Amino acid sequence: MKNKPTVILFDANPIVNGNKSGIGYYGYRLLDALAENYPNDVIIRAHYFNFLGRKQNLDLPKHTNIVYVQSRIIPGKVLNLARKIGFQFPLELFFKSRGDVALFTNYVSLPSITKVSTMVAIHDLCYEDIPDYVSYKNRLFLQKFVPKSVRSAKKIITISESTKRAIIKHYKVSASNIIITPIPPSSDEKIRPTRPSLVGKKKFILFVGTIEPRKNVGQLVTAYTQLPDEIKNTYSLVLAGGIGWDVDETINSIKSLQERGENIIITNYVTDGEKKWLYQNADLFVLPSHYEGFGMPILEAMTHNIPTIVSDIPVFHEVSGPASLYFNKDDPASISKTIVDVLGSKSVQKNLISLGNSRVATYNWKDVAATVYDASLEL
Fold first, then answer.
1. DSSP structural state of residue 211
2. What are phi and psi of 189, to 5 degrees?
3. 309 strand-pairing partners
4. SS3 310
5. Domain contains 191
6. Which of 162, 196, 253, 263 has the most Cβ atoms closer than 10 angstroms to its Cβ?
7. In-domain check, residue 1
8. Could you give the CA distance from residue 95 to residue 45 in angstroms, rounded to a whole number?
9. In whole angstroms, what is the distance from residue 60 CA to residue 12 CA?
């Protein structure tokens, strides 16, 4: 019988670094769920860089079994600078404590001089499967350091069967060393909805995500322009998310279409409150991605009773099952037709919403926390 709490060293940097991405949300929710569901069984030392205390009023999970450890003298950039010359700092330098398990949620781990067992989360392998969809700098970094982290990890965490298969293919990892933790939507009851300033009172079709090549926003925009005038006059297309890399052509095209009167809105990065308002008020959610590790916004949309249509790619079938309609991501006419099929039929909308409610109910953070906690006990 276990007679003392497991000490987990948790890399909290993805949670505090700028605007939260999907990885940041995953780290936040995993940290929160582990602490909440195992109050007497885990002690979590969560580290993040806070050079000279410049990061103030951070939104972090608050539980009595989480101790936050800040690096105020060493800037976070020192890690990347050291890695460029082939040096890795030991995790003990930052956590200032021994632990039973070290958990890294953003692809790359740190070595341990005290032989702490590590778990590392790999969210997708786009940089290996379709390298052109990942920026050159990021691709080189991941291709250099993820294999090292995989070799040193006792357990690898990933978020879908699709990514698990990719990890096995590229890194020859035993399936028994990989655990799957899908990304459930979290309750946002405490978040106050706020209308983004650029979004008016018109009905709208919603996309949520960073605008970058693998999100395939260009095809979605083309599909929107091909919609019947009756639908375009009724519904705007709202693209909610930050502007990523290599999208100048897409953004310039959208600006030209806006000047011609097309109802396309780019909100840029949205806060949690703005995103909640968008989900609460959207009439249709569309995710046209070429490639994803999971597809968290699909479940978020379902939570808010929005019918969803998505790319016909394996991971989306895994996430959504029969609760979404699927289209050919490379064919704007297919996307356009699917939009018309849903917006033109109240019965289709009602059915998709009902299936979405059933689907989203199968995901919860308690199960995710249990999967990670049970795996930590095996190390």
1. B
2. -60, -30
3. 286, 325
4. strand
5. no
6. 162
7. no
8. 7
9. 9
Residues 179 and 224 in one domain: no
The CATH number assigned to the domain holding 257 equals: 3.40.50.2000
Question: How much is the pLDDT for 1?
Answer: 47
Of residues 113, 126, 104, 111, the one with CA closest to residue 46: 104
pLDDT at 86: 80
Nearest to 366 by CA among 35, 48, 132, 10: 35
Q: Is residue 192 part of a domain?
A: no
Distances (CA, A) of 32 to 82, 175, 352: 31, 27, 31
pLDDT (0 to 100) of residue 2: 61
**Side-by-side strand order, sheet with 264-268:** 264-268, 235-240, 203-208, 284-287, 308-311, 324-327
Q: What is the pLDDT of residue 3?
A: 76
Q: Please tell me the chain's helix, strand, coil percentages from 3-state DSSP, rounded to the nearest 5.
A: 45, 20, 35
Cβ neighbours around 190 below 10 Å, total: 6
Whether residue 312 is found in the same domain as residue 170: no
Same domain, residue pair 171 and 37:
yes
Structure tokens belonging to residue 130:
């379709």
**Looking at the 3D structure of the chain, how many domains does it have?**
2
Residue 163 shares a structural domain with residue 248 = no
- Rounded mean pLDDT for each run of 10 residues along the chain, 379 residues in total: 86 86 92 97 97 92 97 90 87 93 97 95 97 94 95 97 97 97 87 93 95 97 98 97 94 96 95 95 98 96 98 98 98 98 98 98 97 96
Largest Cα–Cα separation, the chain: 69
**Structural domain boundaries enclosing 53:** 6-184+364-377
Angle at 237 between CA 235 and CA 242, to 5 degrees: 155
Q: Is 96 left (phi over 0), alpha (psi -120 to 50) or beta?
A: left
The angle, 0 to 180 degrees and rounded to 10, between the axes of the packed helices 346-360 and 332-343 is 100
What global pTM score does this model have? Answer: 0.94
- Strand 235-240 with 264-268, pairing: parallel
Q: Which amino acid is at 91?
A: L
The dihedral of CA 24, 371, 188, 286: what is its sign? positive
Same domain for 283 and 148: no
Give the full edge-to-edge strand order of the sheet including 66-71. 66-71, 42-49, 6-11, 101-104, 117-121, 155-158, 178-180
> 3-class SS at 122?
coil
